[in-house]
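User: tokens in, sequence out, please.
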């Protein structure tokens, strides 16, 4: 007789209605009973208590428990109902202190008009927006909290109402009812933890944890369940990473030790400055790894401008000295060209191998990108295959099948978060033996995230800026509350230009999207007053005709032809333009030391880390930098708090913590990280630092004792589920 399918593997469409199952699959990514059981409540409302309305986040889908204070029906004339027959129902709900307006239109007013009587309590769900400077929910869905009737008593049993991460298509209480249906299967859940580990930590069994997280009777139930589920998430993920580290450590690599009188020594001798303490320390860690006979896997973190490129270049030269080749991968062509330019400049005659006038230890440094001409490309490929070129710098074009190396010894990847594990593996296959790997990022990553996302890499941090860098002053400019502040901002730009400096103005949008029907969607009802983000083309035009009249204003954005982009950047770098109005294309790698001021329009539409990265573009020379964050967000909003935090500190690590606390944990790992689970469900990467560290230790011990997990079949199953999910995610992202 065939074994029964594990109940948790059952597809939802065989258990719930097909319509509900379809929405769950499409909008929440839930396909099986197990997926739904692992869709945990975001928080719990207490039946008798009302939600605190003052803290609701803007533009997010929320679910609240509140009481109806008043309801008014208005009639009005409109295009659809010209004879004053249009109807609008305005309902005010309250938590006892704050109030929130609900609006219903048209035929949608009849049911709520009957049901939402003053004094009624209900769960309301919808998207918070601002209308006439007041918070409102337009057309919210709601579920009355009655105290009677069989069905409702059953579904709201217990004082704690779980509130699930929901979507406009499927409210929290409908998810709750679906979970009700599948909850009995939780008893069949197979426990992945080795019993000794579970008992040693005093964790409840998995079936009990699942029942308690969805149906808690007390707050202690929730705490027990979360403690167990957090540990599972951390542990299974760390076992996956530990197995990768274990497998990597078994790989052979060619040790690369620089010659004492070779290229590296010649390069160091021509450096016009001494390395910082940090650069020396990190270089030594890297040289130590390069000298071993299994591949280095190191993550190099350093703020914008901390000199990562120099450290990476010294590692590349060491490998060339030892007879190997080094490849540096950049996420975009612009960045690859820029790295190539700066490497060639730093090396001088040492980059002219095989040419007259080249130094005796010189090598060739070639650039390889998708848009190169055929002849240049052929020459570059030839130089790589013969070993003539010791260093190649390029984009993903380097990974193509046609690219052959003579002896690839080191791969340096810039801005790893845009570069998945599979690509790393493809490049690794280019060496006769796996090459050493150095990954660089300018995004400061808190230690726990590094242990989670880059858990298969050792980490080095460069945390001091080279001498001669100027501090950047940052200020929030509240354009709506204080329009004269904005006028003053443009005066500051003129003053900087008058002093011979240059300025960036950054906007969230390009502005030629109107012809694209996808982007030109109509604002939904009630959001008509929410204007689209400011656009480069409009802003540049207004500035050139208005506050910055007479200055040389240029634009730069991602949809320009590569040659045009390059030409604009070159003019700006040469000082032939005063103000560059751009999108975030300038976020990575553009280096213009003479630019001293940056004005970021609609700054609240950017993430914290992105603002920090952008700001790193000014103050790169000896004159101090100034960054002005322009926003129309109201003073008490979360967006303003976020901008104030950016203005208050230049410490990228501090900001990355704020950024993580802001974003829901789900995106911490960034969607580009194929190879790690991007949906941490209960593990909060910041608060749970200890759990992650302990799980890493426990996982390493389990894998060292039993790399194939032969004695732990349930853990293997959990791991396969995690890895399958990744593989699927990776294939979808393609």
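Assistant: Sequence out:
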């Amino acid at each position: 007789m065939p074994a029964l399918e594990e109940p948790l593997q059952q597809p939802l469409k065989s258990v719930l209605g097909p319509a509900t199952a379809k929405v769950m699959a499409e909008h929440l990514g839930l396909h099986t009973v197990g997926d739904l059981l692992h869709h945990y409540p975001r928080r719990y409302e207490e039946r008798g208590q009302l939600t605190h309305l003052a803290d609701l986040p803007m533009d997010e889908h929320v679910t609240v428990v509140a009481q109806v204070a008043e309801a008014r029906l208005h009639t009005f004339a409109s295009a659809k109902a010209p004879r004053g027959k249009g109807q609008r129902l305005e309902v005010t709900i309250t938590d006892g202190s704050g109030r929130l307006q609900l609006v219903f239109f048209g035929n949608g007013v009849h049911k709520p008009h009957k049901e939402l009587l003053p004094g009624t309590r209900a769960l309301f769900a919808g998207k918070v927006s601002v209308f006439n400077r007041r918070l409102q929910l337009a057309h919210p869905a709601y579920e009355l909290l009655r105290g009677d009737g069989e069905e409702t008593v059953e579904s709201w049993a217990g004082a704690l109402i779980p509130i699930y991460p929901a979507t406009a298509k499927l409210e929290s209480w409908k998810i709750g009812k679906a979970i009700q249906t599948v909850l009995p299967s939780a008893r069949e859940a197979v426990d992945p933890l080795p019993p000794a580990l579970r008992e040693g930590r005093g964790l409840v069994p998995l079936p009990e944890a699942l029942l308690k997280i969805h149906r808690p009777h007390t707050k202690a139930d929730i705490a027990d369940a979360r403690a167990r589920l957090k540990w599972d998430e951390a542990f299974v993920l760390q076992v996956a990473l530990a197995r990768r580290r274990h497998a990597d450590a078994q790989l052979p690599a060619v040790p690369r030790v620089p010659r004492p009188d070779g290229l590296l020594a010649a390069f160091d001798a021509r450096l016009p400055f001494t390395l910082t303490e940090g650069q020396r320390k990190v270089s030594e860690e890297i040289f130590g790894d390069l000298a071993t006979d299994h591949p280095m896997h190191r993550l190099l973190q350093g703020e914008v401008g901390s000199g990562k490129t120099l450290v990476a270049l010294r590692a590349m030269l060491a490998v060339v000295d030892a007879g190997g080749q080094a490849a540096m991968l950049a996420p975009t062509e612009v960045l690859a060209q820029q790295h190539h330019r700066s490497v060639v400049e730093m090396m001088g005659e040492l980059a002219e191998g095989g040419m007259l006038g080249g130094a005796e230890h010189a090598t060739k440094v070639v650039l390889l990108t998708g848009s190169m001409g055929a002849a240049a490309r052929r020459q570059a490929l030839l130089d790589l295959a013969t070993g003539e070129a010791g260093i190649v710098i390029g984009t993903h074009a380097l990974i193509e099948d046609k690219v052959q190396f003579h002896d690839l010894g080191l791969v340096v990847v810039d801005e790893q978060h845009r570069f998945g594990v599979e690509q790393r593996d493809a490049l690794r296959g280019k060496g006769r033996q796996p090459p050493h790997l150095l990954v660089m990022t300018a995004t400061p990553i808190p230690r726990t995230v590094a242990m989670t996302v880059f858990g298969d890499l050792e980490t080095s941090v460069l945390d001091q800026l080279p001498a001669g860098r100027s501090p950047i002053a940052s200020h929030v400019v509240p354009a709506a509350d204080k329009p004269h502040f904005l006028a003053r901002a443009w005066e500051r730009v003129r003053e900087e230009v008058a002093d011979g400096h240059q300025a960036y103005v950054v906007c969230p949008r390009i502005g030629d999207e109107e012809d694209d029907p996808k982007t030109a969607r109509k604002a939904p009802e009630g959001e008509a007053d929410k204007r689209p983000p400011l656009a480069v083309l409009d802003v540049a035009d207004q500035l050139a005709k208005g506050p910055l009249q007479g200055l040389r204003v240029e634009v730069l954005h991602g949809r320009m032809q590569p040659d045009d982009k390059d030409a604009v950047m070159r003019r700006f770098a040469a000082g032939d333009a005063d103000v560059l109005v751009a999108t975030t294309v300038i976020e990575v790698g553009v280096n213009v030391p003479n630019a001293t001021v940056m004005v970021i329009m609609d700054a609240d539409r950017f993430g914290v880390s992105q603002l920090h990265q952008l700001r790193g573009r000014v103050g790169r020379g000896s004159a101090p930098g100034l960054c002005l964050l322009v926003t129309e967000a109201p003073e008490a909003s979360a967006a303003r708090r976020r901008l104030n935090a950016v203005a208050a500190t230049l410490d990228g690590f501090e900001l990355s913590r704020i950024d993580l606390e802001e974003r829901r944990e789900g995106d911490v790992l960034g969607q580009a990280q194929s190879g790690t689970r991007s949906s941490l469900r209960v593990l909060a990467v910041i608060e749970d630092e200890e759990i992650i560290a302990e799980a890493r230790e426990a996982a390493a011990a389990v894998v060292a004792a039993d790399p194939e997990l032969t004695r732990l079949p349930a853990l293997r199953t959990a791991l396969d589920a995690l890895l399958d999910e990744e593989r699927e995610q990776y294939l979808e992202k393609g």
